[in-house]
Amino acid sequence: DAEITQSPRHKITETGRQVTLACHQTWNHNNMFWYRQDLGHGLRLIHYSYGVQDTNKGEVSDGYSVSRSNTEDLPLTLESAASSQTSVYFCASSVGMNTEAFFGQGTRLTVV
Amino acid sequence: GIQVEQSPPDLILQEGANSTLRCNFSDSVNNLQWFHQNPWGQLINLFYIPSGTKQNGRLSATTVATERYSLLYISSSQTTDSGVYFCAVGLAGTALIFGKGTTLSVSS
User: Fold this and answer.
1) Alpha-carbon gap: A100 to the closest alpha carbon of chain B (Å)
2) Is A29:A71 a contact under the CB 8 Å cutoff?
3) How much is the pLDDT for A2?
4) pLDDT at B94 over 90
C-alpha cells in the first residue's frame, strides 16, 4: 500500500546541532507539507512544496529549511537546533491543490 | 490570515452519548478536513468536506460554506472515540490551517 513515512520517530539532539527529519511518500503526490505541534497551538505550518524544486515558507519557518529534489521526499532541516524547536513534527502530502491531505506518524524531537 | 475556531475546547461524555463539535472559519475555503488524533498521536482522516454532508458509520459531518462553519457529529460515543478532534481549512491554493482542536474524553 502507498504510504507516507517519517524517520526517525524519536530523536534527542543538542542545542546548536544540525538535524534533518525525513519524510517519504509513495503516493506520487505533488504537494508535501511540514507542521509542528505544540501544546496550546495545535498544528502550525513550517514549510510546504507544490512540486519538485518548489518550496514555500509557512507560518513558523524561521530556523528551518526544506528542499525538494524528487517527488517522494521532503526532508526538514533544523540548521542550528534550539530548545524552542522541541516539538512533534508531522509531514503530510496531497495529490493536488485543495485535495485531501494525509499525515505521517510524526517525529518527536527533543533539543537539550 | 484565516482564523479557525473550534468549540468546545474540551468535552467529557459517558459512553453512548451523542455530541456535536463545531468549526468556524473566517473566510471562504476550498478545503476542509476533520481529523482525529488518537492517544498515540496519530492523525486519522475522518472527512474531506469543503461543502455538503457526509456520513461514515457513527460519525457524520456537515459544512455550510456560505455561513463559514462545519459540524462534526458523533453518535453513540465509545471510549475509542477519545482524543483530539481537529478541523483544518485551506483557501484556494494554500496549505491547511488548523484549529486548536476539541479534546474529547469518553468514559465507560
Assistant:
1) 6
2) yes
3) 63
4) no
The residues, ordered by sequence, that sit 6+ positions from A62 with a Cβ below 8 Å of its Cβ are none
Which residues, in sequence order, are bridge partners of residue B6?
B23
Residues in chain A whose Cβ is within 8 Å of chain B: 31, 33, 35, 40-45, 48, 58-59, 88, 90, 92, 97-103, 105-106
Q: How confident is the model at residue A1 (pLDDT cuts 50, 70, 90)?
A: low
CB B71 within 8 A of CB B60: no
CB B59 within 8 A of CB B83: no
Residues of B in contact with A42 (CB under 8 A): 86, 98-101
Q: Is the pLDDT of residue A25 over 70?
A: yes
Q: What gap in Å lies between CA A99 and CA B18, rounded to an integer?
A: 29
Interface test with B, best of A43, A60, A88, A105 (most B CBs within 10 A): A43
Residues A7 and B5: their CA atoms lie apart, in Å, by: 31
Q: What is the pLDDT of residue A40?
A: 80
Inter-chain touch B30–A100, beta carbons under 8 Å: no
Chain-centroid distance, C-alpha B36: 8
Over residues B38-86, the pLDDT tens digits come to 999 999 999 999 999 999 999 999 999 999 999 999 999 999 999 999 9
Tens digit of each residue's pLDDT (9 = 90 or more) over A76-107:
999 999 999 999 999 999 998 889 999 999 99
3 state SS of B3: coil
Q: Are B54 and A60 a contacting pair, CB within 8 Å?
A: no
